[in-house]
Amino acid sequence: MSRRRIPFSTVAVTGLGLFVAAAVGVTLLVSGTAGVRTTQELLAERAESLLDALERRLEARLRPIDAQASWILQSVAEGRVDLDDADRLDAFMSGALGATPQVAAIGITDPTGQVRRWSRSAARAKTEDWSDRPQIIDWLDQGRRQQQPSWRPPLWTSIERTAVLLHDAPLRRDGRFLGMLAQIVPLERLSEDFADFAAETGVTPFVLYGEDRVLAHPALREDVREDPGADPLPRLREVGDPVLERIRSPDVVSPFGLRALTRAKAVAVRLGDAQHVLITREVGQLGAQSWSVGVHLDPRQDGPSQLQRVMWSLFAGVGVLVLAVVVAAFAGRRLSRPVEAFALAAKRVQAGQLEDVPTLPGSAIAEFDDASQSFNDMVAGLKRSRMIRRTLGRFVSKEVARELMKGGGKIEPLEAEATVLLCDLEGFTPLTQSLGASGVVEFLNQYFEDMVAIIERHRGVITQFQGDAILAVFNVPIADPAHAENAVRAALEMVAAAESRRYAGVQAHNRVGLCTGRVVAGAVGSHGRMTYTVHGNAVNMAARLEVMNKDYGTRVLMSGYTAKQCRGIALRRLADAEVRGYDDRVEMYTPAEGACVAAA
């Protein structure tokens, strides 16, 4: 009884079709899931970054007021400010108003209810009797028991005719209660700041007080209300923002695109054909009520569309899957033994075993013959690319890479005279605090791009980036008889470039130290990751000279030996100075006046 045989075409069509369907399907599932998750994380990161920026902006408005109150309390307690000396007190409080532009008025109320007020709207201080106002007497009684400065709930002031935040603090000297200090912050000022934030970011920021009161919003930068009585803050429906009005009755809680939020909450509301997203974060309490910062995003911004593009990609992937199965079924009818050899070779390529990939033989079938030849060419190209990739993964400079190619991927260690250049940024630490993480990365990328181009143009090789510092060497591994002069010209051009350009909108200032001497250069590191670097006394001396620029008020400082080799550059001798870590005094030079301009 003969066995039932299955035609190869059936096996090829079925097997290859199922394989392609599974491979593309799994790839589509994994990449689609990862794409959705990555997009969610990017959207969440952007949303939380907006809230971080908004919270910092609000804090920058309010924290200086608390600090100023502590300073005034201390000045009164130590007797540096006499509340009975009206002239000196007026001058002192005028200075306090000037230091905090967000404060509209400052007042001091003594225990009897007598008030002296300083306001931006009045040229002179005013003294008034508020002893007949019950709320003032209650406030003073509370102040006698109060120990620290505090923020009071928002209130309406008939003097400023607007809703304000009141910051108060008890004044004492030698344990005796002298009265209450009050600072008034109009909420219009916060809303003006939020309007600027909206113009910069394209989102609508707001601050909620409690459940349904609005503390700040771009629409409230001009408060045209009359005296609202006991309710100084507008409700959600009174702001004129239809999106914010729906925050307590959303259509969607935790929208799909923002489910990666960890430090905020999101809801979505639909107005017409557009879905708006509101993101909020509770940041503390102001008086008896909690308050939250938030933004809502315009649907035309690219955030939601990113997720839509991922979904469209998934749909397109499904179409590709179907098409791939159909093509596999058609191609399977024409497969033969060369397919096995091709599959084996492809698996070895996929596994990265390029040295074990066999050369595919030719075929009488034109398509197979072309595929075999193309595959063989691809493997040869991959082998070349791997060597180049390994080379460039370990070494940075194009010149170094070319030397590596000549040496079969190796550079032998060598000892030679070279000029070492070390460049560092001035004031980088406060710059990182003002720019933030993304701003620092943008700044450094732009700055390094200019500096690297200058160094390589003068035949230098960068061996290391150390934070904001650059370490470069001239004369190794590429021989350069004029290495000292080229290094000095590179330094001059680097300083001139930093002074004349702005990076990420910021003016940079750098300093350079140069030293010429014997160095040992070579590839250092593990087998899988090498770094081309230099070692020697010249490296340490260049670092010392870079730091000593601060002592001499210079931008470029070099050793005497380096200076003697720079006959084409005007230099001036500074001094023979002691250098930390060295017994002998070191002769130091700096470019003469005008040298930087000439180099630029």
How is this structure best summarized?
It is built from 14 helices and 22 strands. The chain is α+β, with helices and mostly antiparallel strands and 600 residues long.
Report what the structure shows.
The chain has 600 residues and is of the alpha+beta class. Among the domains are: 189-302, Beta-Lactamase, CATH 3.30.450; 336-394; 398-599, Alpha-Beta Plaits (2-Layer Sandwich), CATH 3.30.70. It is 45% helix and 26% strand. The chain has 14 helices and 22 strands. It has helices at residues 8-77, 86-99, 134-145, 187-201, 242-245, 302-332, 337-350, 366-394, 398-406, 428-457, 483-500, 537-552, 560-564, 595-599; strands at 105-109, 114-119, 126-129, 150-157, 162-173, 176-186, 204-209, 213-216, 252-253, 265-271, 274-286, 289-297, 414-425, 460-466, 469-474, 502-503, 506-507, 510-525, 530-535, 556-559, 571-577, 586-591. Helix 1 packs antiparallel against helix 4 (187-201), helix 1 packs antiparallel against helix 6 and helix 8 (366-394) packs across helix 9 (398-406).
